């Protein structure tokens, strides 16, 4: 009867100024009951002495305990770590009669200030009963949810008493089986609040007709709605002043600045029933979450979650976190470029969301619900007995946290199977708040959820799912790259697929930090895991599986994660650099590119280049680094983006991103005049008297004109097939099924960066075979400068039916005239393949077309040259020399048009520049090439240059 319906968490302040300060620890009408309480620890609730029930508290024996805090971390009982097992019989809803129980008691002085008084518990684990001045107030549960009681009729002026019984185990424990230490007690704030009739505040930002509005829904106690003064502040400035005469009002907010995780603009609504106060502030932000083109979008932009799962944990205080701890931890997370947090697996302390709102993190707010240890056929989610409890847990979370802009998704819980109680819970959540999306991983068919969610999915499996055609919901990895001990590996590989596939919108690493409990020893602090307290059932080191140590020292894996998700990407060719912003919203001005060139460990040159204002997702200009001409041995170019001014939490001089690339040198600079022009179907790039044309349909280089001579007969395109050799015959039927050739090409996206003498074109292409569903995502950078056309390509195979191997990966250049003469520096003089090249030492060689490929009696693939550093191919007729160099040794071949054996009579050739070429084997009668000589459909990258 005294228990309040779920509502938002708010405070009354005595002045507008104090309200805008938003520090509830100083709110006049707020009386903290935190601090030392009298305490008695019992083995069971059956042992509670009569004096407790008769309020004869001074006749009882008391020790003390700190509130907030856990009993087990203050000498009462011991922590127990389990992942999914219950350390009690899995016999819901029954709990053992031996059930550690804490009795809490204190007095407090109180003078009435406002109409009604509320007693608020932010977190008590797991079940409690309360008495005020000896009168029973009721009970509470839902360990990480807020419980409030109306105590107006129970308080007296002057001294009051409050007594609380906390049971460690309750039937609700079966819904709170999260992978963490079992720690009980009053572990979050206890507060007495003076309030007016104002009872609830829900603010929903609404974007309509290009205009932001705030929908304000207020709750009041009593039968009539009393008008409420409402002022919206932008910082300290009142921008809207009005009186709300209805429980629901729409307020237009012209020119509202949007909230996003990069630019977390906040507004404060200050409400009061009377002009003299008290004043209730509520922060909010203008942002919208919607599904556009099957992607979750924040303010119209698809999100990419680079997040962590975060448990609340302090190695000395458990889940009883101080505000300082929360702020410093969340700030640390933000400083590492992490942009999202899943509150695994329960709603966090309220202050956490204030910090996320303020510094900009996207939050998946997860309900306090995990039934891992009892997830069988009679899992609680399927049992009507638990239905109401499921629904209420959802409602309590959503009501408490309704106004936080950082929360973009409600998560129904973790690992609790799927069934009708979740359907009811999701419906109840949508009824309160249709403005956010719903997540719940075990809902694998997305019956109630807005997104697919999986855990620890392998990258190839993700690619398969991502490339399924048809309109499907997006995919989020609610947990991936388990960070236990050394590792996790493949962070960049995950990042690559997140960035490649629109349907993959990122994920949350499991998990942010180890939960080792601190123990002081004569030699210093050590951190212990499950079993350290001789728990008969425990899961050992599974709680030591974070990116950071318990003391928040970043592991190498965390440093790596931060590097992988850094907000800038670098593209480099020789001494030309393009920086790309990977931010989604913010434009950054005042950035510097800092660079250092080191050869054999010795610095050769360094410098700073200003980067002009860089909008989200955009490329910078081509920045040219002043390095001396000539080639360098064993050289690395290290680049970083540094802030010239403070940006959010980053101070002036912060390194926001860095990269290092191998550097081979630059030729003496010749003046170049580079121009870019478009026709509807072509992009034309000219440099002095040479020209490169890119087809805007396929994304391939369609023409290369060297000083007035066209060298391409057709598009230069990536291919993966070669003419079969005799040793392929047993696998040819399978290979035909893969339809390796011909391939088709589609340009998906391109961007251009330019300077006076250099242009870079970034191309994203989709390459597909006929018939099949597999494909290659290709990202290619074309650089055009006085030196020539530099091609840098990265590719990822995908699709459910993708072949596991191909005979080669590389570009075919259909030549306008036969290759009359080829000279090269590399393995030679004859053909060489990875499993057959010892007779071909590296050297400088020259061969005519007729001498190029071995004339096998049965026509087949022939002629590959390996280890090629540089080559020159002279075309017949024009005598144009097409010069090729590779940053790394290349494969080079001249074949008949379309890849057939060179023939004297056809005289139409293709030049092949391959990243990878498969070995030969002897499978005509013997085995296939050894594994190490095969070309697998793994991601690849390579680069070469065609000189002007
Ligand atoms: C997954 C849990 O969701 C998470 O809480 C944690 O326990 C993690 O495992 C292991 O550290 S569930 C697992 C069955 C994949």
Walk me through the topology.
Blueprint: H1 16-21, E1 30-32, E2 35-42, H2 50-53, E3 63-67, E4 80-82, E5 101-110, E6 116-121, E7 124-125, E8 127-132, E9 135-141, E10 147-150, E11 158-167, E12 180-182, E13 185-186, E14 190-195, E15 198-208, E16 211-220, E17 228-234, E18 237-244, E19 248-252, E20 267-272, E21 280-284, E22 289-292, E23 295-298, E24 301-302, E25 305-309, H3 323-335, E26 340-342, H4 350-359, E27 362-366, H5 387-401, E28 407-411, H6 420-432, E29 437-439, E30 452-455, H7 459-466, E31 475-480, H8 491-500, E32 504-509, E33 517-521, E34 524-528, H9 556-564, E35 568-573, E36 576-581, E37 591-599, E38 602-611, E39 623-624, E40 630-643, E41 655-666, E42 674-678, E43 682-687, E44 690-695, E45 701-706, E46 709-710, E47 717-719, H10 732-738, E48 743-754, E49 759-769, E50 775-785, E51 788-798, E52 805-806, E53 808-814, E54 819-827, E55 842-848, H11 849-852, E56 865-875, E57 881-896, E58 909-917, E59 935-936, E60 940-947
Parallel strand pairs: 25-26, 25-32, 26-27, 27-28, 28-29, 30-31, 31-32
Antiparallel strand pairs: 1-14, 2-3, 2-5, 4-12, 5-11, 6-10, 6-14, 7-13, 8-9, 8-11, 15-16, 16-19, 17-18, 17-20, 20-21, 22-23, 23-24, 33-34, 35-36, 36-39, 37-38, 37-40, 40-41, 42-43, 43-44, 44-45, 45-46, 47-53, 48-49, 49-50, 50-51, 51-60, 52-59, 53-58, 54-55, 54-56, 56-57, 57-58, 57-60
Helix pairs in contact: 3-4, 5-6
The structure holds 1-methylethyl 1-thio-beta-D-galactopyranoside.
1-methylethyl 1-thio-beta-D-galactopyranoside (IPT) binds next to loops.
Domain Beta galactosidase small chain/: 684-947
Protein name: Beta-galactosidase
GO molecular function, one term: hydrolase activity
């Amino acid at each position: 009867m005294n228990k309040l319906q779920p509502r938002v968490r708010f405070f009354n302040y005595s002045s507008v100024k104090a309200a805008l300060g938003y520090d509830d620890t100083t709110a006049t009408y707020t009386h903290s009951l935190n601090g030392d309480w009298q305490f008695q620890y019992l083995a069971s609730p059956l042992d509670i002495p009569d004096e407790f029930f008769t309020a004869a508290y001074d006749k009882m024996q008391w020790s003390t305990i700190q509130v907030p805090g856990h009993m087990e971390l203050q000498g009462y009982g011991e922590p127990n770590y389990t992942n999914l097992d219950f350390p009690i019989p899995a016999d819901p809803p029954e709990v053992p009669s031996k059930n550690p129980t804490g009795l809490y008691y204190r007095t407090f002085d109180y003078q009435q200030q406002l109409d009604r008084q509320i007693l608020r518990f932010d977190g008590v684990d797991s079940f409690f009963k309360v008495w005020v001045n000896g009168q029973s107030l009721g009970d509470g549960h839902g360990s990480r949810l807020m419980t409030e009681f109306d105590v107006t009729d129970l308080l007296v002026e002057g001294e009051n008493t409050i007594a609380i019984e906390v049971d460690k185990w309750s039937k609700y424990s079966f819904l709170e089986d999260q992978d963490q230490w079992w720690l009980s007690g009053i572990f979050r704030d206890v507060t007495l609040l003076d309030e007016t009739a104002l009872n609830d505040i829900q603010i929903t930002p609404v974007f309509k007709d290009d205009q932001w509005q705030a929908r304000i829904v207020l709750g009041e106690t009593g039968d009539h709605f009393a008008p409420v003064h409402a002022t919206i502040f932008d910082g300290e400035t009142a921008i809207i002043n009005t009186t709300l005469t209805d429980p629901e009002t729409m307020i237009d907010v012209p020119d509202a600045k949007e909230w996003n995780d990069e630019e977390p603009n906040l507004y404060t609504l200050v409400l009061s029933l009377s002009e003299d106060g008290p004043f209730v502030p509520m922060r909010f932000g203008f942002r919208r979450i919607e599904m556009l083109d099957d992607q979750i979008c924040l303010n119209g932009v698809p999100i990419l979650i680079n997040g962590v799962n975060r448990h609340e944990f302090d190695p000395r205080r458990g889940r009883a976190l101080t505000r300082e701890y929360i702020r410093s931890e969340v700030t640390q997370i933000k400083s590492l470029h992490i942009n999202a947090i899943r509150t695994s697996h329960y709603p966090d302390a309220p202050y956490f969301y204030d910090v996320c709102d303020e510094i900009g993190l996207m939050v998946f707010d997860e309900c306090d619900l995990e039934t891992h240890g009892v997830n069988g056929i009679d899992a609680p989610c399927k049992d009507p007995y638990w239905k109401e409890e499921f629904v209420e847990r959802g409602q309590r979370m959503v009501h408490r946290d309704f106004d936080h802009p950082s929360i973009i998704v409600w998560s129904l819980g973790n690992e609790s199977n799927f069934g009708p109680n979740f359907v009811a819970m999701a419906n109840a959540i949508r009824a309160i708040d249709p403005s956010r999306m719903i997540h719940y991983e075990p809902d694998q068919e997305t019956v109630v959820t807005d997104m697919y969610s999986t855990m620890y999915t392998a990258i190839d499996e993700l690619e398969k799912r991502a490339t399924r055609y048809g309109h499907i919901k997006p995919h989020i990895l609610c947990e991936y790259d388990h960070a236990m001990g050394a590792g996790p590996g493949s962070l960049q590989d995950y990042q690559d697929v997140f960035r490649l596939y629109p349907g993959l919108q990122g994920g949350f690493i499991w998990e942010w930090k180890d939960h080792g409990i601190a123990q002081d020893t004569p030699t210093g602090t050590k951190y212990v895991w499950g079993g350290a307290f001789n728990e008969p059932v425990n899961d050992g080191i599974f709680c030591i599986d974070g990116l950071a140590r318990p003391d928040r020292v970043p592991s190498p894996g965390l440093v790596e994660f931060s590097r992988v998700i850094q907000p800038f990407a670098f593209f480099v060719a020789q001494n030309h650099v393009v920086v790309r912003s990977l931010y989604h919203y913010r434009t950054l001005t005042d950035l510097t590119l800092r660079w250092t060139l080191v050869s054999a460990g010795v610095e050769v040159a360094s410098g700073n280049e200003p980067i002009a204002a860089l909008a989200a997702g955009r490329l910078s200009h081509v920045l040219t680094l002043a390095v001396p001409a000539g080639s360098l041995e064993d050289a690395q170019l290290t680049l970083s983006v540094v802030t010239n001014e403070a940006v959010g939490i980053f101070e002036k001089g912060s390194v926001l991103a860095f990269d290092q690339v191998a550097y081979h040198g630059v030729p003496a600079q010749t003046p170049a005049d580079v121009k870019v022009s478009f026709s509807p179907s072509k992009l034309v790039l000219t440099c002095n008297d040479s020209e490169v044309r890119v087809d805007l349909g396929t994304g391939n280089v369609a023409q290369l004109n060297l000083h007035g001579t066209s060298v391409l007969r057709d598009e230069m395109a990536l291919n993966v097939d070669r003419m079969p050799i005799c040793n392929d015959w047993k696998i040819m039927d399978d290979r035909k099924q893969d339809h390796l050739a011909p391939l088709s090409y589609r340009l998906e996206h391109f961007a251009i960066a330019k300077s006076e003498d250099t242009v870079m074109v970034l191309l994203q292409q989709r390459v597909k075979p006929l018939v099949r569903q597999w494909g290659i995502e290709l990202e290619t950078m074309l650089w055009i400068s006085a030196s020539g056309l530099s091609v840098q390509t990265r590719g990822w195979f995908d699709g459910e039916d993708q072949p596991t191997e191909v005979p080669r990966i590389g570009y075919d250049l259909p030549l306008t005239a036969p290759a009359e003469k080829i000279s090269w520096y590399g393995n030679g003089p004859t053909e060489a393949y990875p499993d057959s090249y010892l007779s071909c030492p590296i050297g400088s060689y020259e061969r005519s077309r007729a001498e190029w490929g071995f004339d096998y009696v049965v026509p087949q693939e022939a002629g590959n040259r390996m280890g090629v550093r540089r080559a020159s191919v002279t075309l017949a007729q024009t005598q144009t020399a097409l010069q090729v160099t590779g940053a790394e040794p290349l494969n080079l071949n001249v074949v008949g048009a379309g890849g057939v054996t060179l023939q004297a009579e056809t005289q139409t050739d293709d030049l092949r520049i391959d990243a990878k070429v498969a070995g030969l084997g002897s499978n005509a009668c013997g085995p296939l090439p050894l594994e190490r000589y095969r070309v697998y459909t793994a991601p690849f990258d390579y680069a070469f240059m065609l000189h002007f």
